[in-house]
Design goal:
This protein is α+β, with helices and mostly antiparallel strands. Helices cover 34% and strands 17% of the residues. The protein has 3 domains: 21-220, Heat Shock Protein 90 (2-Layer Sandwich); 247-355, no CATH class; 367-427 and 437-484, no CATH class. It is built from 17 helices and 16 strands. It is elongated and about 100 Å long.
Length: 485
């Protein structure tokens, strides 16, 4: 830095930012969820084990508080950390430090409120306080930070204050909160959505031996893993300090029930949640999507999810933004490798999706096992026919009180109006969605079919064996065999 000493300072003038800059800080792009997640980052960095978020409607003048039991800050530390840009993003950090720019607490808070109040307590110390109030900054034209504790703090609920150590952040004059909640009911709904969001972003911190606890309005945040039980792991790969774990998730037929299937789909739903999940120091940055690889989200590849782990030393390469909600794959070898992994994972996922988890293959099973049969006519053309000896068709014939010819007429109508051309077009375009039969429904149908044939004298063991050769029962051969026996 010796070259600085040779500068003639008379050739320069110092440009001091005007106070209008702090209003620009409010426009970084936060929403309520990302803003509070940024505050939670600081609590985790401070080694907190319990974090409590509280959203209070307060008769139309809402406030938000975030309390942790972390290490807290003394007066000198708080005075330093309340300053905008209090850390150099290029500095080496401890592994537990989830921050980067030294902006999070301030930018996140001021994006939602005009007043940021920070109370912090170190063990065996006293409460330290600092506050930004944008109305005062605007009125005075000065970057003023208050260090006088407000009177309202005395009446603030004790359960929201730090006990032995920790930090309490209170947002007041929450003008931006009113964009997300117009009344008590909608604020409660935002709290539910926030709970789900934090469960996604901090899922790895909410499990294991060193797990932390997060609550939103007294409701515990539960972790959501992008990789549900039963997923198939493809080969783990490494590229320098990057670890990549691609997975193919189970087909819908493999989930115990519809609720678990929907839960595994995530906040945004199955199609939107496919793709990459980028974790930075165990904190989720990107939740699904293909990171600009020019890959379309496709119904057939929705079972493909790829976990990418990076360290904070790669922040610049991956262009991690201030909100810690966006990343970009670096150009060159990393991009090429991730593109190849995405292609291979999508291919595997598509095979699982199209096969529907079947345990019976059309190439080895009797054609009588399937609901639809392909019949070759004398002129060489083929047509689809409904299998008349399928157990559920037989059950329908037995239970129907009218003429059996009625059923035959309906089956013929279905066969002759089958939209084969439309199916082909939609399948090719990737827009075709085939409705799934819930496992519980399949199990119920299986029991009815077994009951029908055993009542006419067929041994139950033989009835079960024969039934499990037919689709859709063949999709769950192992599960149904154990439940029906």
């Amino acid at each position: 830095m010796e070259w600085i000493l040779s500068i003639d300072l008379s050739d320069y003038e110092e440009s001091i930012p005007t106070t209008s800059l702090i209003e620009s800080v409010r426009s970084f792009g936060y929403d309520l969820n990302t803003a509070i997640a940024d505050i939670v980052d600081n609590s985790i960095t401070a080694n907190a084990t319990e974090i409590r978020v509280h959203l209070e409607w307060n008769n139309g003048e809402p406030f938000v508080s975030i309390t942790d039991d972390g290490e807290g800050m003394n007066d000198v530390e708080l005075s330093r950390n309340i300053v905008l840009g209090s850390k150099n993003p290029n500095e080496e950090r401890e592994f537990s430090d989830l921050g980067r720019f030294g902006l999070g607490m301030k930018t996140a808070s001021l994006s939602m409120a005009r007043q940021l109040n920070v109370f912090s307590l170190k063990k065996h110390g006293s409460i330290s306080f600092r506050s930004w109030d944008l109305d005062i900054v605007e009125q005075t034209g000065k970057w003023l930070i208050s260090k006088k504790q407000p009177e309202w703090f005395r009446e603030f609920p004790d359960e929201l204050k730090p006990a032995e150590s920790g930090t309490l952040i209170v947002w007041k004059t929450c003008d931006r909160i009113l964009q997300y909640a117009k009344d008590l009911k909608t604020l409660r709904q935002r709290a539910v959505e926030l709970n789900s969001h934090l469960g996604v972003i901090f899922s790895r911190f909410l499990v294991g031996r060193a797990q932390i606890s997060i609550e939103v309005n007294g409701s515990k945040v539960e972790p959501w893993s992008p990789i549900p039980e039963g997923s198939r792991s493809l080969s783990t790969q490494h590229h320098g300090q990057i670890t990549i774990n691609p997975y193919v998730l189970p087909h819908k037929n493999k989930f115990p029930n519809d609720d678990e299937f929907r839960a595994a789909g995530g906040i945004k739903g199955w199609n939107s949640q496919q793709g990459f999940y980028v974790f930075r120091k165990n904190r989720l940055i990107v939740s699904g999507g293909w990171l600009g690889l020019k890959i379309k989200k496709d119904e057939h590849t929705k079972l493909a999810r790829i976990i990418v782990d990076i360290g904070s030393e790669l922040d610049e390469d991956w262009q991690i933004n201030v909100l810690k909600s966006r990343a970009s794959i670096p150009a060159g070898g990393v991009r090429e490798m991730l593109g190849a992994i995405a292609k291979a994972t999508r291919k595997e996922a598509e095979e699982v999706y199209r096969m529907k988890g079947k345990t019976v293959s059309r190439s080895v099973a009797s054609r009588d096992s399937f609901v639809w049969q392909i019949i070759k006519k004398d002129n060489g053309l083929k047509e689809f026919r409904v299998n008349r000896i399928h157990p559920l068709i037989k059950h329908l014939e037995e239970c129907y009180a009218g003429k059996k010819s009625d059923i035959e007429r309906v089956l013929i109508m279905i066969e002759r109006t089958l939209p084969t051309e439309a199916i082909q077009v939609e399948q090719t375009s990737g827009q075709l969605n085939v409705p799934e039969i819930p496992y519980e429904q399949i199990k119920a149908d299986a029991k009815l079919a077994i009951k029908l044939v055993t009542e006419i004298g067929k041994p139950k063991a033989m009835a079960i064996k024969d039934l499990l050769m037919f689709e859709p029962f063949s999709f769950y051969k192992d599960e149904l065999e154990s439940e029906l026996s």
